[in-house]
Amino acid sequence: GAKLGPLHVPTHLFFVITWCSDKTADLRDCDPHRLLASAFLLPNWPFSLNCEAPERTIKENEARVVDVEKLTGLSLYRALPVYEAVRLRTSLPNDHWRTFA
User: How many C-beta atoms surround the C-beta of residue 89 within 10 A?
Assistant: First the structure.
């Protein structure tokens, strides 16, 4: 069989969550200025290993969307008007994600 190289496991996982503040069922129907986003760079290990509450770990690993883009090489929100894309990419971390808890 083919000899494979070493298995590479990422140290972190990223999540970018985008939603409409109007609670629109489909993001395509949302007015771009009503969009909100949260981004996270979470360590790739079980939270319980460090004896820290999961909510605290999530909060401490919140990031800007632009940080995720820089680390991954992705370019998000390209279909949005420039101002709205910049707003979503550069928004500072916030507690919007608690809306889903």
Answer: 20
